[in-house]
Amino acid sequence: MTGILDGRIAVITGASRGIGAAVARAFAREGAHVVLVARTVGALEELDDEIQAAGGSASLVPMDLTDYPAIDRLGSALHERYGKIDILVANGGMLGNLTPVHHYDPKLWEKVIATNLTANQRLVRSLDPLLRQSDAGRAIFVTADAAHGEKPFWGAYAVSKAALEAMVRSYAVENTKSNIKANLLNPGATRTTLRATAYPGEDQESVKPPEDLVPLFLELASPECRRNGDLVNA
């Protein structure tokens, strides 16, 4: 199987459904070996079956992103097996509650920040050395509208995404002279489980499917991409 990502190795978090699964299928179709990270084993196995049936290849990593030692082990395992990775798609995240900030449960607040922000720093810490071994390392971090402007009741989610954007911009500037390009992608309204939870009364058919985002992900993952530190809005 050949394509624009032929022979490249892509790590995708939140890969078992929604945006992550759509990106995994597309990257595999374009020739990448996809390393699929998510908590749900059954959903990962179903996705793996789809990818293999279409002629692609995948490795499954059942893991909670807040298990930071597991993130460290992932980097070590990928180093031993491949010696590099070419693409990181940091898509995994959680919504938390839609509630006033002064009502927010402290443990849930910490869990959202840990999943949406700290886990991504730990991924960078673990996988940056492997991206540097690529001829064109590409890191794509999924953000959200909630990071911008006034978003009442979105609490920890909004804070985590705003902080993620600041972190990625710093990381991008730090890599100005390296082979790594790091960018942010804001999907906007997309047909996902997270969106359905946040807007339970919304007609899901009225928002775009995750597959519509694939061209943007492919652009940012391509070795030819020269964008760095950009926020790309779908």
Number of strands: 7
Can you give the mean pLDDT? 96
What count of structural domains?
Answer: 1
Report the CATH architecture. 3-Layer(aba) Sandwich
> How many separate helices?
7
Helicity level? 40-55%
Biggest sheet, strands in spatial order?
A: 3-2-1-4-5-6-7
CATH T-level fold name: Rossmann fold
Low-confidence stretches: none
In N-to-C order, the SSE pattern is EHEHEHEHEHEHHE
Structure classification: alpha/beta
Compact summary:
The chain has 234 residues and is an alpha/beta fold.
Explain this structure to me?
The chain has helices at 18-29, 41-53, 68-81, 106-131, 155-174, 193-198, 214-221, and strands at residues 9-13, 33-38, 57-62, 87-90, 138-142, 181-186, 231-233. The chain is α/β, with parallel strands linked by helices and 234 residues long. It has a single domain (9-233), classed as Rossmann fold. It has a 7-stranded parallel β-sheet with strand order 3-2-1-4-5-6-7, sandwiched between helices. α4 links the parallel β4 and β5.
Write the layout of secondary structure elements.
Elements: E1 9-13, H1 18-29, E2 33-38, H2 41-53, E3 57-62, H3 68-81, E4 87-90, H4 106-131, E5 138-142, H5 155-174, E6 181-186, H6 193-198, H7 214-221, E7 231-233
Parallel strand pairs: 1-2, 1-4, 2-3, 4-5, 5-6, 6-7
Question: Which short descriptors sum up this protein?
Answer:
single chain, 234 residues, Rossmann fold, 7 helices, 42% helix, globular
